């Protein structure tokens, strides 16, 4: 009898192997199906990527409230299944979190994170005279704005206070960690050719959390600064995209346009920006 069994197994090795592979795959899939957990996406337009970092290409987007199944975790990213059979990676920090509800009702109660763009070996844009680097003027502007806000009682953090390099992820993370009531990133624009661009622009990413803030600050910039105001626009910047708090980015004029830089370089201009930001935030927090 045992001889017959061995002979049968030997003659049917391929079929038996295929059955075993099928059984293992079925058990593995079933275990993953029932042991995996689901999470909710916390924001609109969360990018689904081919791999677990921002360097991978985008293959789609998910909106706030979408429930997805977690299959794997790696480096703070989640491999998820969504829309039945689609697979991709999303940031874990943009799931199962509450976004967009400001807590402070006045500026004196608020926590503000100010982000002077660039720094260190990242000079940012260059002026007509290339000794004039964007990183220098973003820091000068942020420091004046910081003092203005602190004079009103706000608690203010800078993502950098010296000429040092800070990664983009760290800037957004500081805002998230501090549960900032507002995050404002300062930059200066440049055009492909000198003197071919002009004006300041206010950018937001998450409509639900940040559009109103951007509108209120931009209204004040338009009133207090004599540059051509280019309005409020959607912008896909990491420091605002990965920010769970109300966040905006200001491009405060063109550093390589002579008439814009004539203002950008002055203390008067920086005080005007500070006044505009302070008034905009005051209105934002006081609005019911």
Automatic annotation (TrEMBL):
<protein>
    <submittedName>
        <fullName>N-acetylmuramoyl-L-alanine amidase</fullName>
    </submittedName>
</protein>
<dbReference type="InterPro" id="IPR002508">
    <property type="entry name" value="MurNAc-LAA_cat"/>
</dbReference>
<keyword id="KW-0378">Hydrolase</keyword>
<dbReference type="InterPro" id="IPR003646">
    <property type="entry name" value="SH3-like_bac-type"/>
</dbReference>
<feature type="domain" description="SH3b">
    <location>
        <begin position="34"/>
        <end position="98"/>
    </location>
</feature>
<keyword id="KW-0961">Cell wall biogenesis/degradation</keyword>
<dbReference type="Pfam" id="PF01520">
    <property type="entry name" value="Amidase_3"/>
</dbReference>
<dbReference type="Pfam" id="PF08239">
    <property type="entry name" value="SH3_3"/>
</dbReference>
<dbReference type="InterPro" id="IPR050695">
    <property type="entry name" value="N-acetylmuramoyl_amidase_3"/>
</dbReference>
């Amino acid at each position: 009898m045992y001889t017959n069994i061995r002979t049968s197994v030997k003659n049917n090795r391929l079929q038996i192997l295929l059955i075993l592979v099928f059984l293992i795959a079925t058990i593995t899939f079933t275990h993953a199906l029932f042991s995996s957990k689901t999470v909710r996406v916390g924001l609109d337009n969360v990018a689904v990527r081919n791999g677990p970092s921002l360097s991978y290409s985008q293959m789609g987007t998910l909106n706030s409230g979408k429930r997805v199944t977690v299959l794997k975790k790696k480096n703070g990213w989640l491999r998820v299944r969504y829309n039945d059979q689609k697979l991709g990676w999303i940031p874990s920090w943009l799931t199962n979190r509450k976004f967009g509800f400001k807590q402070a009702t006045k500026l004196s109660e608020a926590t503000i994170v100010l982000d002077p763009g660039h720094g260190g070996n990242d000079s940012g844009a260059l002026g007509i005279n290339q000794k004039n680097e964007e990183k220098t003027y973003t820091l000068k502007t942020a420091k004046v704005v910081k003092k203005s806000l602190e004079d009103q009682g706000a608690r203010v953090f800078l993502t950098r206070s010296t000429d040092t390099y800070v990664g983009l992820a760290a800037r957004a993370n500081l805002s998230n960690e501090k549960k900032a009531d507002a995050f404002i990133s300062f930059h200066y624009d440049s055009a492909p050719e000198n003197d071919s661009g002009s004006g300041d622009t206010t950018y937001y990413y998450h409509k639900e959390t940040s559009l109103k803030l951007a509108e209120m600050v931009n209204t004040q910039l338009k009133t207090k600064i004599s540059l051509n105001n280019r309005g409020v626009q959607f912008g896909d910047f990491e420091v605002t995209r990965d920010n769970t708090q109300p966040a905006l980015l200001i491009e405060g004029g063109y550093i390589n346009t002579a008439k814009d830089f004539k203002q950008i370089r002055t203390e008067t201009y920086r005080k005007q920006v500070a006044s505009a930001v302070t008034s905009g935030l005051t209105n934002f927090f006081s609005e019911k």
